[in-house]
Amino acid sequence: MPILPVLLEGLNKMIANSRRPYERDIYVELCLTVPVRLSVLVPHLNYLTRPLVFALNGSQELVSQGLRTFELCVDNLTAEYFDPMIEPVIDEIMAALWKHLEPVPYHHQHSHTAIRILGKLGGRNHKHFKPCNNLVTQSELDQEIKALFTIHGLNGEVPVSITPGVQSAIKLLEDPRLKVHYRISAFKYLSGILKLFIDTTPIPADYGAYVQDCVEKLKSEKIDENMELEESDIKDVAKLDRQQKFFCRLLEMLFFSISIPEIKDEARELIDGITTHFTLLYLGTSIISKVKKERAFFVNDNEGKAYINETAYLNALNYSLSFWDKDVRNMGIESIKKVYSATVRIFGSEEDALYSPLFRSMFYKFTHCCYNDFYHTKLGGILGLKTMFEDLGIPSSWFFKRQFELVRSVFFILRDTPETAPFEVRDLARSLVLKVLHDCNVGVSKETILEKPFQTLVGALVYDLASANPLVREVSQSSLKVLSETISVPIATIMGPCKQLLLTPIFGKPLRALPFPMQIGNIDAITFCLNLDETFLTFNDELNRLLLEALALVDAEDESLANVHRLYEYRTSKQLIELRDVCIKLLSLALAKPDFSLGSLAEARIRILGVFFKALCNKSTEIINAAHLGLKSSLQENSKLPKGIIAKRSPSDVDELVGPQKINCAWT
């Protein structure tokens, strides 16, 4: 089964990135029901450990499948082989097995199977039995928030915690199978707690003057007056951090409520109000941060009053942008626009609004999300950056100073996101980076090209020309072409100052010493550079050595390039095809160059054309097409075929090419 490891690896990534329980259950079931024998599955058994944990804690059908799979492994694999493989998840598996021994509501049939498996494990079943292993420290959902209630039989109002049901309310709200009545009640409960986090102090009469004073201080480079901050009211930093996370979780559930039609309007109204409140609140926290940054150190300085951190709001905003429901995503985009419009209204103009540190915090939050492990968080980051760049009135000059950070984060998405991920993630990243490079560099002078900030950006693009990821190479080439067209400077001139970033790693090691994807990337990068107008590459010893290596790779048999047991793997066979394809393209291009010299020109041409003829007999259509195009381009310039080139091929190759059954005569 050459494709089996690719299939299991893809399903494991989908399980890790799934956000809906039923979606994850589908991937888990597909993993555990792959129709292959255990002997075929054993080398890839590590891909089943995490799905096995989800299955043993899932629905009744998944539990049955998980128990069958685990029992099959226990029966047929020795402890010396099987135990190290499940070591990372053994505690979770044991906890699930012991859980199924409990009485109703757990299924009695599962308990019989679980006790049978524990018996087969022998003494190993007690090795990982830790009674206190399920102790949980206080989490953000365990915050004790008290309100005053009048209780019959007690004198006066009594403080009672209102948060014990938060976790259950979140489960009710997220479960689409429940009646709407319960989900509405859960929303009202959670939104009520959320409102308690917001200060209800009446707005003072001079609040407008206070806002204007804050704006002027943010617009000035330095605060002239010596501001005294209020005394900090933080008594427990850890508790404050948990409360910030708790507020963020409640705000995420508020965005989630947009996906429920019955409470959509109420949730939208509350989100709009909180967004405006947050924008005004951030104005004051920006002043506090600026005062702390500029003042001289004094041991008795106050730290100022604690407010809701902007990170809590921005995390919830990214949650909405990465949501699977488009209404929730649109609400996140509208919230970004509302933050911008409110800031413009506060500062008086779009130009002055850029003095607010809020947009800088938002920009770096979204770029940070691009480095997250999960595809949906990457999607939220790229959507946030796209909204800031395209839908707000922020000028391109503001992004010009930050385009290196933006381009680097977007390229990480392209590099880290596999083909099994949703297409939207990579497509949005590709279109955004090309648009940013075009719009931000319009009118850039030729002197700016040689400056360090611009060359840092170009260096990152040049380095990615040799990436092992084909999409990264393609976008890097497109980015350099966009830059060249925008500033009207040839690509070779743009790449000139930082070309060694690309060439030194390529020429520093033989191709055979690298993995196949890196070999493909290096050869593709040299092909791109060699094909440039006014290219900086010359046919020196280093390039000639690379051409000889490429020639040897095309001419070599599969058995000499990879281990025999890996030749039948889908990934290896695909990489060998891609490797020969890029090698043939490089040799075809080199053969067409007037200054090409690899030994004597006639001898080199004969060797390369001979390899092309051999490639015509390959099983792969891609290699045949590449060899055909190489022969066509070479023979267009010199149609005379070198003498004896067919005769040097093996009889089987000649028969494959010119056998009588291949001859087609057209009679006229």
Automatic annotation (TrEMBL):
The scientific name of the source species is: Cerrena zonata
Pfam families reported in the protein's UniProt record: Tra1_central, Tra1_ring
What is this protein's name?
Answer: Uncharacterized protein
Look up the domain of life of the source.
Eukaryota
Q: Which InterPro entries match?
A: ARM-type_fold, DDR_Repair_Kinase, Tra1_central, Tra1_ring
Q: Which GO terms describe its biological process?
A: DNA repair; regulation of DNA-templated transcription
GO CC term, one of those recorded? NuA4 histone acetyltransferase complex
